[in-house]
Amino acid sequence: MTVPLLELRSVGKTYAGGGLFSRRRVAAVKQVSFTLAAETPEVFAIIGESGSGKSSLARMVLGMSTASEGQVLFRGQDLAASRGRSARLDFMRQVQPIFQNPFEAFNPLTRVDRYLYATARNLTGAKNQSEAEAAADQALQQVGLSLTELRGRFPHELSGGQLQRAAIARALIPGPSLLVADEPVSMIDASLRMTIVNLFRELRDRLQVSILYITHDLATAYTISDRIVIMRQGEVVESGDARAVLAHPQHPYSIQLKNSVLSVEGAWNDDDDALAHGTTRSTEGTRP
């Protein structure tokens, strides 16, 4: 039996709430389980509004936070049991984050290309500047950019779309097996969002990399995802094939989310282009 790429077993996360001396505990994630296969790359979306627990889940998958209960396993290894610099570097090579705001992912006083060189030296073993530049340029070309375009430029000299693609390129440098993308298009101009969304699908197919796509936007999730889970108040309320779940939701909350994004002019259907260009809005702010 093949070991899964990523497996969550009844994962929960609890935080202290109500102030420094309060004994109240808040469950941000409750008994979440799912598996990503190692042999078949896919885009797996976690959908939910603010406070649903989706970002807490992403932090645990990235090893930035430890599960309060259950297990997060990457290639069969429990992240909570992984110790030492060598194990951490190996994990970082295989699992890379892409964050919501590209302008916060880069120091405004540091040239963008320097970040790429540092990633190449630290995670690929590039021995000199020439090798670091080659690794950076190769990754940039995978996202439709080049080192010539970025060399010497600071974050504010790039558009939001360019900078997010540079952030994706940076994540690709070590050749990861899994990208964890937390709301990666929410800070991008609406006219450019589908460019990034389509890029993720291309990377899945071309580089054989799986993508954990965290979002509140049903439209992009419908367009990009192979499978999804829908979360509400820390719990998974529905999961399965993305098209099947979003076209014919069964849980009352999933149905409410779908109804909340239908435009007055059109209906939810299999027309990706119509869906992606203005017939829906996100679930952010939707309340049960």
Order of helices and strands: EEEHEEHEHHHHHEHEHEEHHH
Fraction of residues in H or I helices: 25-40%
Largest sheet: 6 strands, mixed
What is the fold-level CATH name, i.e. the topology? Rossmann fold
> pLDDT under 50 segments (min length 5)?
263-288
CATH top level?
Alpha Beta
- How many helices in DSSP terms? 12
Structural class: alpha/beta
**Count of folded domains:** 1
CATH-defined superfamily: P-loop containing nucleotide triphosphate hydrolases
Strand content: 15-25%
| Span of the ends, CA to CA | 41 Å
Average of the residue pLDDT scores? 87
* Order of neighbouring strands in the sheet with most strands: 6-7-8-3-9-10
Number of strands: 10
Computed over alpha carbons, the radius of gyration is 19 Å
Question: Can you tell me the CATH architecture?
Answer: 3-Layer(aba) Sandwich
Domain ABC transporter: 6-258
Organism: Teichococcus aerophilus
Protein name: ABC transporter ATP-binding protein
GO molecular function: ATP binding
What does this structure look like?
Helices cover 38% and strands 22% of the residues. The chain has 288 residues and is α/β, with parallel strands linked by helices. The protein has a single domain, classed as Rossmann fold, CATH 3.40.50. The strands form 2 sheets. Strands 6-7-8-3-9-10 form a 6-stranded mixed sheet, with helices on both faces. A 4-stranded antiparallel sheet has the order 2-1-4-5, covered by helices on one side. The longest helix is centred in the last third of the chain and has 15 residues, at 193-207. The protein starts with 5 loop residues before the first strand and ends in a 12-residue tail after the last helix.
